[in-house]
Amino acid sequence: MSGAELTRTLDRFLGAHGGDITAAVRDLSTGRAYHYHPDLQLPTASTSKVDILMALLLRTPWRELGTAARRDADRMIRLSDNDAADRLYERIGLETGLAEANRRFGLERTYAPPGRCVDLYCWGITRTTAEDQLRLLAALVAETSPLGAEDRGQVVRLMGEVIPEQRWGISAAACEGDRVALKNGWLRRVSNGRWVVVSAGLIRGRGHDYAVAVLTEDNGSMGAGVLRVEGTAERMLSAFRGEEECRGDDRRAGGGGENGRNREGLERGETRGKAPGTAKSP
């Protein structure tokens, strides 16, 4: 399927849904890439926690982190714990430290606002593009990454161990046997009650490593946002796989998506740890 055909496919799927969306996929094995609404900047919500951890590891390698910092890293990624994220965000120097790290990772249009939003720092309303999220994901697997191999491996490990109720999102596009490492984000706007729902991560298997990012805003509910994210990811990966597409029983079990989703917690906001259930509009 050509890029133009995929765009028409996504236009048809998303035409029944309101709100903004940007998405991108890159086959890291071949370099083939696709972007949907590439110029759009949207909030990261909790997906920025991966960025925070990567920025931390630029300063202090994993093997040199103390027990408390490792515990916070684990809780921040696997459980989406916001208090842990706040502590590590302070440790990297807040938005200034994040911006410095992002320059090293090659991000071009990702900006974290200063200050606090409700009772947390404003990392949750960092604005980014899907392309920048692919650049960040690529830095987790590339040998030329500013991060060393051990540190990259620790981040990917934690993303691969996200608790089951938070494994919706781009995992819906995975085939049985694929390895998925992801981080999802979701928040409800104080100003209008609408939802930001985001998913970004790596899908690896069958000789291909895919970096995938889908960011949505102005969803009527969290569940509606998850449907948009997963449906978009599934269609992009289906177009990339072509004749190799997984079908029926070959779809990854527990991946969620339109083929049977574990909806536990989708309407509750973040689980296990204080969450950005609400946020001020940037």
UniProtKB/TrEMBL annotation:
Pfam families: Beta-lactamase2. This is Beta-lactamase class A-like protein. It comes from Planomonospora sphaerica. The lineage of its organism: Bacteria, Bacillati, Actinomycetota, Actinomycetes, Streptosporangiales. Residues 242-253, 260-273 have a biased composition (Basic and acidic residues). InterPro entries: Beta-lactam/transpept-like (IPR012338), Beta-lactam_cat (IPR045155), Beta-lactam_class-A (IPR000871). It comes from the Bacteria. Residues 242-282 are annotated as: Disordered. Residues 73-216 form the Beta-lactamase class A catalytic domain. GO terms for molecular function: beta-lactamase activity. One of its GO terms (biological process) is beta-lactam antibiotic catabolic process.
